[in-house]
Design a protein that fits this description.
It contains 12 helices and 27 strands. By secondary structure, it is α+β, with helices and mostly antiparallel strands. The strands form 8 sheets. Strands 12, 13, 14, 15, 16 and 17 form a 6-stranded antiparallel sheet that branches. Strands 10, 22, 23, 26 and 27 form a 5-stranded antiparallel sheet that branches. A hairpin with a 5-residue loop joins strand 6 and strand 7.
Length: 547
């Protein structure tokens, strides 16, 4: 006989039908779990107890000693009988296959038959099939997840050429900018919002969107450069520039609440220098435009222009306010001037001093310093003075290479971000050509950026004695990145600490000794102050190199 198990969604209990060739009938029962469901790897058998709800006619089945089946008919099920499930019921009755023992009055022991081997084989096939399906399912889930992540990193809509340029600028900031909180905002969300909401239908609108993005960082040194500005910046670091010869910056905390832009340095011989503008002066207006809220790079652009054109400046020197008209000229950025300076009556104490004035760090700086040292040595100098006053900086690598000229070993600068020291620049002395002669370094508030790195390295490594006044205090480093259309970004990538781990931002490098207020900034005047004890600027050459 066969017993077929079925179930209905509307029925509380499963319905079992006994296949009787003579008289089909059915009964319902409430299953009571006797043993726990075995794991998938085990042979899934359940023993259940069923309580008949009605009297039925059925076949009584006996199992003889040989293992073969014999049956006899009885009118009422008062004896033991066995149901062999041939299929798996639905979710309301969970069992894969096996023997069910039903009792009516007595408990029947479940019998194991040769069908178990078939069931085992069937279960093994199911498990193998399930494993394959499971692996495929996991692979499909991973593929979908990867696709979702990839799609989340890029907008779901088609990107135009203007969008791609904006994204190029966004990625540059994302990779290089020092502050990984991006001034306390979600940088990824800003990208998505900008691509949805900012108009980028032409190049000018895209440039405006990039400028707006950079403004959210609240960093005046991180700025966008249109193609012409980027080209002009590169030409400035390569040795030539057309303008008035001014290096400008923002007023420092020590300068109080003064409005406008401060003059860091005026290039010797340039139009501004010839007009009497000097370090510390305040530029109030450029061509009648107030500088109170003007950025330094906007101001620099206004100061530059075609050779021979004019620009009007309103400049404050102390309490005096001057209105000046300057004619732009080509500024030759030869960064080094040098000369030997003889000191009478000091045959035993540095009778001949080599004076080197370094005005900027362009691509020629370190090579020009080496050349000046060689020239001065041919004049038998036995000490050096390096004048970094009004040197507003320039190329960071040139500052590092210049420091290596004077140091036989040691740390030059620590490069740091918000998580601490990121990189260390040091030297093993292989590039040193003047590591032994006495050295004095002159600094002032116009000494900034790369020149502060050099001054700090020479001071902290006890290679030089510093004279003058605290430096400007620009302790942040910018790198310039070119975009695909020829425009560029100047990005604050780090801040630096001196070898003694001093963060000089807005503080500056503190010199060892002051200089007289009247100390000149030209080479002839410098030599005169060493040679004439009666001069107001006189400095004893022995004291110049004493710690």
């Amino acid at each position: 006989m066969e017993v077929l198990a079925t179930s209905s969604a509307s029925s509380t209990y499963p319905l079992f039908t006994l296949d009787n060739p003579n008289k089909p009938f059915s009964f319902t029962f409430n299953p009571i779990i006797i043993s726990q469901v075995h794991p998938w790897k085990s042979f899934p058998v359940k023993k259940i107890e069923a309580r008949l709800l009605c009297r039925i006619l059925c076949k009584r089945t006996n199992l003889d000693n040989s293992g073969s089946w014999r049956s006899s008919t009885n009118a009422i099920c008062k004896h033991k009988f066995v149901f062999h499930a041939l299929c798996r019921p639905n979710k309301n009755f969970t069992s894969q296959s096996g023997l069910f023992a039903i009792r009516h009055g007595h408990l029947l022991r479940s019998w194991n038959t040769s069908s178990h081997q078939k069931v085992n084989s069937h279960s093994q096939k199911i498990r193998e099939h399930f494993s394959v399906v499971f692996v495929r399912l996991v692979a499909a889930m991973l593929l979908v997840t990867s696709a979702s992540v990839a799609l989340s990193n890029t907008p779901s809509w088609a990107l135009s050429e203007e969008n791609l340029l904006f994204l190029e600028a966004w990625r540059t900031i994302d990779r290089a900018y020092i502050d990984k909180t991006f001034n306390g905002q979600s940088w990824f969300r800003y990208r998505e919002d900008a691509l949805r909401n900012e108009p980028m239908n032409n190049r000018e609108e895209t440039y405006m969107a990039i400028r707006k993005m950079l403004a959210t960082l609240n960093d005046p040194f991180t700025r966008f450069l249109e193609p012409e500005k980027f080209k002009s910046l590169r030409s400035g670091t390569q040795g030539a520039l057309t303008g008035v010869g001014l290096s400008i910056g923002y007023p420092t905390e020590s300068e109080g609440s003064r409005t406008g832009l401060v003059v860091i340095s005026a290039t010797p011989g340039g139009p501004a220098n010839q007009a009497g503008i000097s370090s510390g002066d305040i530029i109030l207006e450029i061509d009648n435009a107030s500088t109170e809220s003007m950025g330094i790079y906007d101001a620099a652009e206004r100061l530059q222009g075609p050779e021979g054109s004019s620009v009007e400046l309103t400049v404050q020197t102390g309490p005096e306010i001057k209105h000046l008209a300057l004619t732009r000229a080509k500024i030759s950025l030869n960064p080094v001037k040098s000369r030997p300076c003889e000191v009478p009556g000091s045959e035993k104490n540095y009778p001949k001093i080599g004076y080197i004035r370094l005005t900027s760090f362009n691509q020629k700086a370190s090579a020009a310093v080496k050349e000046a040292i060689d020239t001065l040595r041919s004049n038998n100098v036995n000490a050096f003075v390096l004048d970094l006053r009004d040197n507003s900086g320039g190329l960071f690598p040139e500052g590092i290479e210049t420091a290596k000229i004077w140091l036989d070993k040691g740390v030059i600068v620590y490069i740091c971000d918000n998580r601490g020291v990121r990189d260390i620049y040091d030297t093993d002395g292989s590039s040193a050509i003047a590591a032994s002669e006495p050295l004095a370094v002159l600094v002032n508030k116009g000494t900034a950026s790369a020149s502060e790195i050099l001054a700090g390295a020479l001071k902290d490594n006890k290679r030089a004695v510093l004279f003058g006044e605290p430096t400007y205090g620009k302790g942040k480093i910018q790198s310039v990145f070119q975009l695909s259309d020829g425009s560029g970004l100047a990005v604050t990538v780090a801040h630096y600490e001196t070898p003694a781990h001093n963060d000089i931002n807005k503080v500056g490098v503190i010199p060892d000794h002051p200089l007289p207020n009247s100390f000149p900034k030209d080479d002839d005047g410098f030599c005169g102050c060493l040679q004439d004890p009666a001069a107001a600027c006189y400095v004893n050459n022995v004291q110049l190199f004493k710690r």
